[in-house]
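User: What would this chain look like folded?
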Amino acid sequence: MFNAIEEYLDALKTEMKNADPALVQDALADAREHLTLALSAAGEKNPGVSDANALQAIIEEYGSPEETASAYREVERRTPPAISQVVKPRSFLGRFFGVYVDPRAWGGLLYMFIAFITGVFYFTWAVTGISLSISFLVFIFGFPLALLFLLSVRGLALLEGRLVEALLGVRMPRRPLFSHQGMKWFERLKALLVDKQTWFMLLYMLIQFVLGTVYFVLLTTVLSFSLAFIAIPVFQEVLNLGAMVIGDTRIWFPSWTYPLWALGGFLLWTLFMNIARGVGQLHGKMAKWMLVGE
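Assistant: Here's the prediction, encoded as structure tokens.
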């Protein structure tokens, strides 16, 4: 028999100790929300019934921790992954050139571009929110402002997780970390401040700005060089511009080198696609470590 919601959540967490952390967080968030709302409704409907008895009836309807854990595992097993895994070729050349048919490579490439946009937004939002919250704490409305800012950080972390799962194929939470139903706003603010997950999320928003800038510079640089190498025959034969310009001197390459330049551009981009796939997997692991609660 469970006398409190936290006891049920602890038992559910124990039952799912070997499951994916993101799945565990979703299960705990759903259970907390359902039990809290149901217990509140039961208290209003039958004021004379104790919380322990009401909770027991709610749990019988919702399911025991074992049943709930089993149900979530079954749903997760039946849910297809965001990005399907391709069969890895055995040969090195097969793995190297097979990157073009690997959704993880294209997802990582797209994420590297989007990370620059989200990184700038996250950094601006975090710095502005922290500055305003600290500045206005001397006024009474500074505390509600700080609460709204921290809640927005939680919301942005959830959206970032959905983006990571969609593009990088890493399982991320699909529910908010918690809702703090029935708590006063000052208590909610205190709970957010003492929760280390809040600070991990803020740190992630700042790190994303640095990583997003690096990703964007690498992406645009490699893409520019790859296209330039491939387009050398067009520059020389069609546009009559020469391959390179140093000062007032135009440099022309022999026509027999055209296939080599085009091949070099193709190989450079293929190499970067492999790098983008690896970067995407590493970034996904970092995001999961920082954005998924214990």
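The longest strand covers residues 244-246. If you want, I can go into more detail on any region.
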